Amino acid sequence: MWPPEALAFLRELEDNNDSEWFRRERHRYDRYLVAPAREFVVKLGDLGAPRFFRPYNNLRFRPGPPLKEHLGVAIGYGAAGGYYVELSLDGLLVAGGLHRPAPDQLERFRLAIDDERKALGFTRGIARAERAGLTATEPALKRAPRGYPMNHPRIDALRMRDLTVTRRHPLEPWLHQPACDERIRAQLVAARPLVVWLAETVGPSTRPRR
Fold first, then answer.
1. Does 193 reside within a domain?
2. How far apart are CA 108 and CA 122, in angstroms?
3. pLDDT, greater one: 63 or 31
4. Whether the Cβ atoms of residue 2 and residue 171 lie closer than 8 Å to each other
5. Which of 111, 180, 208, 210 has the maximal Cβ count within 10 Å?
6. Counting beta carbons within 10 angstroms of the beta carbon of residue 88, is it exposed (0 to 12), middle (13 to 18) or buried (19 or more)?
7. What is the pLDDT of residues 98-132, one digit of tens each?
8. CB 111 within 8 A of CB 174
9. Within 10 A of 175 (CB to CB), how many other CB atoms are there?
């Protein structure tokens, strides 16, 4: 999918993270990172429309480097979750689910997990993703959320705050081969049962945006 020049660009960006350098080298970013990703997401039309994140960091509220040192693409991502692919020097991240759910979404998720019948769809979705090599996010809470016992049969799910499955692949030669497209697609498709369950059971937040 991505040529070796994509990683070479990211390595140089890490050493030259400033806007002037990026403006001079923007053509390489577009050619070696963005263009291959756009070509690939066309094959994922059944999962939803893609959204490419801007390369610039928002420095108004958090100081830091002006440029993101990765390429991130959300696919079919709406108010109740979706899919995500990210390439950086840390590896190739493939993910699906709902990242940072709002409090009302988390409340509906826990109510569903407390219901054995409704929770079955979540359990099956996680199992399907894990068979494809993805891993469910570790529970963030040390104890059961308020109102639920620690001996609940699905306590690990109740302790989750990030409802995602992920896999970070190391940077290996297959990244530059057609097998890369096939591997990413297979893992995103494997996450689809979870994404569909979240959309149908948890849904978007109904709280007003700040």
1. yes
2. 13
3. 31
4. no
5. 180
6. middle
7. 999 999 999 999 999 999 999 999 999 999 999 99
8. no
9. 21
